[in-house]
Amino acid sequence: MEQESRIDAEWVAINAFREILKLSTKGDLAKATYDDALDFGGELYPALLGKETSILRRARESDTTKEYRQRARLKSQKENKKIEALELLVTDIKEIEELLQVARKSKDLGRVDQLRNRLKSLSTSRNELAPTPHTENQLIFRDTTAAVQGLPAIDSGKSYRDFRLPDDNVLRIRVLHPDKSEHITGADIIYERHNPYEQSASLVVVQYKIWKNKSLRINEPRLAEQLKKMRSFTCESDLCENYLQNKAFRFPYCTAFLRPTDKLQKPDQKFISSGEHIPICKIQACATNNERGNPVIEYKKIRPTSLSGEAFEYLFTANKIGSRKLEYDELERLYEKFKVSASSDQIVIHAQEVVESS
């Protein structure tokens, strides 16, 4: 059960980080793969998704890497001392490279294809095992020193990292999380799109939750409390009200969404998740009672009301959904009032995209 909880925690975090990538790259799926999300999350939350900690990352490693991890574990037992998989791997790489050097000198290049293939596999494993940080070319976004000052902070005491996006906007991210990562049951995204020249922002809030067999019990105490806080933070704070009477066409100013996430049955399962986003004000209308009389939402019942992942990302990027425009002083008062931070079982990913307008 402890490993299952850990897998759930990692999986919900990967989906949340992937949402961040999709929103900030304007839905560019080539820059928002699950592997990208795993790497990005590993940089920002290494205790959960780092190379040396993540169960799901290990499950996605090549067979060669798994082989060397097994060899290192058993060799450590045999010799009664710690032996690293990377140490064994580097030794074998060096030996094959020396043999290929012999072949080059003797011009015996026609019969070394198996050695070349093996060296390629070992080199891939070295990249998987080496505990080196990502270079700028390995990360989808590059760290930037062109930070924008004066953005309203969700928690001024928490550190953040700034990234340069492909369209030259700046993305500032804070990750607030519980001390015990294996107890995580869900994640919140607060994504803000800023116009610093107007000193304003619009935002969207997404609550991620694991469901089983595409069904989620909505009166479960922790989820009910999280949705209550979310509703208070957004709906009851009138973030969906259009006081400016904007005449341009726009969908309703829905700000808060529940994003059920399919459960992984095993760590090496192919990563895929249905991406339905349901406005939290519509949850009760979509709910039905299960055989035990508990209110639940089910995939087939929410589909007429929810937004697919692709539609959600496009509409928010196009400024067709999300909150009304908030002036900075109002946004600061909102954060001061609610003091949003990670709970004992939630990750909060706070992302601020700064639109570089002329």
Number-wise, the strands total 12
Rg (CA only):
24 Å
> Structural class of the helix and strand makeup?
alpha+beta
Give the biggest beta sheet.
9 strands, mixed
- Which shape, going by the Cα principal axes? globular
Please mark out the parts with pLDDT under 50 across 5 or more consecutive residues, or reply none: 133-137
Portion of residues in helices? 25-40%
- Beta-strand content: 15-25%
Question: SSE string, helix = H, strand = E?
Answer: HHHHHHHEEEEEEHEEHEEHHEHE
Q: Summarize model confidence as the mean pLDDT.
A: 84
Total of DSSP H or I helical runs spanning 4+ residues? 12
Distance between the termini: 53 Å
Please give the structural blueprint.
Layout: H1 2-24, H2 34-44, H3 46-49, H4 55-59, H5 63-79, H6 85-105, H7 113-129, E1 142-143, E2 161-164, E3 170-176, E4 186-195, E5 200-211, E6 215-217, H8 221-233, E7 256-262, E8 278-279, H9 283-286, E9 288-289, E10 295-298, H10 299-302, H11 309-317, E11 326-327, H12 328-338, E12 346-354
Parallel strand pairs: 4-12, 5-7
Antiparallel strand pairs: 1-2, 2-3, 3-12, 4-5, 5-11, 6-10, 7-8, 9-10
Describe the protein in words.
It contains twelve helices and twelve strands. The chain has helices spanning 2-24, 34-44, 46-49, 55-59, 63-79, 85-105, 113-129, 221-233, 283-286, 299-302, 309-317, 328-338, and strands at 142-143, 161-164, 170-176, 186-195, 200-211, 215-217, 256-262, 278-279, 288-289, 295-298, 326-327, 346-354. Strands 1, 2, 3, 4, 5, 7, 8, 11 and 12 form a nine-stranded mixed β-sheet that branches. The model is unreliable at 133-137 (pLDDT under 50).
